[in-house]
Amino acid sequence: MAPTNALFDASFTGGHETHQKAQPEIDKHVERMGKLQYLLYADGNQSLLVVLQALDAAGKDGVIRHLFTGMNPQGTSVFGFKQPSREEAARDFLWRAHMRTPGKGDVVVFNRSHYEDVLVVRVHKLVPHSVWSKRYDLINDFEKMLSLNNTTILKFFLHISKEEQLSRFEQRLDDPSRHWKISESDYSERELWPQYVDAYEDALASTSTKHAPWYIIPANHKWFRNLAVSQIIADTMSEMGLKLPRTRVDIKDVRRKYHMARREEKAGGKHRAKEPTEG
Ligand code: AMP
Ligand code: MG
Predict the structure, then answer these.
(1) Distance (Å, rounded) from C-alpha 7 to C-alpha 263?
(2) Are strands 76-80 and 151-159 parallel, antiparallel or unpaired?
(3) Whose alpha carbon is nearest atom 15 of ligand 1?
(4) Which of 88, 95, 111, 112 to mutate to test the pocket of ligand 1 (most atoms within 8 A of CB)?
(5) Pocket (CB within 6 angstroms of ligand 1)
(6) Which end of the chain, C or N, has fewer beta carbons within 10 A?
């Protein structure tokens, strides 16, 4: 499970050679995601929760920007987990996550998540060991409950190398339009890389379950990251058994009752101003 283990090469690209060759495949998966989200919404019995976790600059924002474009904003939302507000900090750590879980028919993306409470919280010793160490079981129970309520859960850890992170920070320095993203804490957090690795290893090993699996995504190449994530989401959604709801009316009857008169009228050659049509 170790994110830094050689088994998990952050630069892995599988059999795929170049971004150019992979892009049509990414486009295809993104299109599938959009179509399946339409079905999920229409079906209205299930939901999808996508959890994105990573160290800084690994591409959580990029995944959202590139892959969720095909989904209808009606039925899709993204929630970013920051430092807890006073209201949030006054409650149990799952409270704010639970409030944002998807309703039936919806897709929700967590940009960071309840996992921060066993990651940054552990690394910075914001609560004692006796508190955070009990959270893995609580998380597993929470996710189990969501899955019993027809929520499919996919969790992605975007894995970049320490060198790649530094080079992405440098690219930000060179691009004034992204200067707002730079913070001193990005650099101070880098110093804690080994502690984050330990925390991620434990989190992933303790909470990867059948109903809420973790996927470790090699993310040094943005295009491979996008390919892997989009394929996993589209494949998973296509296995959810989504279907259009049963038609509640007799289509022939509705056509005859409400549409024939107008047709006949038109065919009768009456001159009327053309009514605007809506797509
Ligand atoms: P960003 O994702 O760059 O906007 O940063 C959000 C910041 O909020 C990150 O530094 C997170 O580590 C931090 N954060 C998120 N959840 C928590 C939490 N439960 N406790 C403390 N810090 C958190
Ligand atoms: Mg940040």
Answers:
(1) 66
(2) unpaired
(3) 82
(4) 112
(5) 81-84, 112, 116-117, 120-121
(6) C
Instruction: Tell me the pLDDT tens digit for each residue of 241-273.
Output: 999 999 999 999 999 999 988 788 888 765 555
Across 194-233, the runs of DSSP E, i.e. the strands, are: 214-218
pLDDT tier for residue 23 given thresholds of 50, 70 and 90:
very high
Give the rounded distance of the alpha carbon of 207 from its chain centre: 17
Name, in order, each residue with C-beta under 8 angstroms of 48's C-beta and a sequence gap of 6 or more: 40, 102, 106, 107, 108, 151, 152, 153, 154, 233, 236, 237, 240
Angle, CA of 154, 47 and 155, to the nearest 5°: 10
Alpha carbons 222 and 199: distance in angstroms, whole number: 24
For 196-235, how does the pLDDT look when each residue is reduced to its tens digit (9 = 90+)?
Answer: 999 999 999 999 999 999 999 999 999 999 999 999 999 9
Straight-line distance from the first to the last Cα atom of the chain, in angstroms, rounded to the nearest whole number: 49
